[in-house]
Structure formats: C-alpha cells, structure tokens
Design brief:
Helix content is 33%, strand content 27%. The protein has 112 residues and is an alpha+beta fold. The chain contains four helices and five strands; from the N terminus they run βααββααββ. Strand 2 and strand 3 form a beta hairpin. The radius of gyration is 14 Å and the shape is globular. It comes from Kribbella pratensis. InterPro entries: Dimeric_a/b-barrel, Rham/fucose_mutarotase.
Length: 112
C-alpha cells in the first residue's frame, strides 16, 4: 500500500511594490526549479495570492522531507531563483521555522 502524501501549507507576505514582479516570475517559473521540486518528491504545488498574502500548498510523496528540502536548498538553480523571489517577500506570520520567510500553517480540516 502506498502511503498518502503529506500535505504542507505555508504563508508569506508579498511586498506591495514587488507584487507584480513576483507574479511575473511565477508566470514563467524556471524549468530547473520545477525539475528539482519534482526530483525532491514535491507534487501538486500551488501558490495562491490574496491581496498581499501568498499561500502555498504542496504534497510531499517522499520518505525524508527534511533531506529533500535540503537538496532543494543546495541546488544552485533554486538558489539563483530565490535571489529574485526572496526580495519580493516579507514574513507576516510567527517565526516557527527560524530564518524562513515562508512559515508553516496548521491544517485544521481536510475533506479526503
């Protein structure tokens, strides 16, 4: 039996003056960024925007989330991508994940 994917969700703010730049970047996400996410067991990844709030959701299908996230963090293409996206973002939630802009949110209900 295949185990169910882990559902992960995160929130961050988008700087109003950088909102259009951020949206433009995501209309054409670099293929290498997408490839690394898939290689690291990320599926069904979406980012939603509501005003100046970004909400991300993805499903993780691997066995070691922390190790796969480190593989993404170590990837030169992803690192370069973040030099463009990170300046567009601002932390808006309690810092539960030290140093991260995107902070995890807790699932309170799921219709499976």
């Amino acid at each position: 039996m295949t185990r169910a994917p882990e559902r992960r969700a995160f929130v961050v703010g988008v700087r109003p003056e950088k909102r259009e730049e951020y949206l433009s970047l995501h209309r054409a996400v670099w293929p290498g960024v997408e490839q690394k996410l898939v290689e690291c067991n990320v599926r069904n990844y979406s980012i939603f925007v509501f005003g100046d709030i970004l909400f991300a959701y993805y499903e993780y299908v691997g066995e070691d989330h922390e190790a796969d996230m480190q593989r993404i963090a170590d990837d030169p293409v992803s690192q370069e991508w973040w030099t463009h996206t990170d300046p567009c973002q601002v932390r808006i939630a309690e810092e539960r994940n030290p140093g991260a802009l995107w902070q995890p949110v807790d699932e309170v209900w799921h219709l499976g």
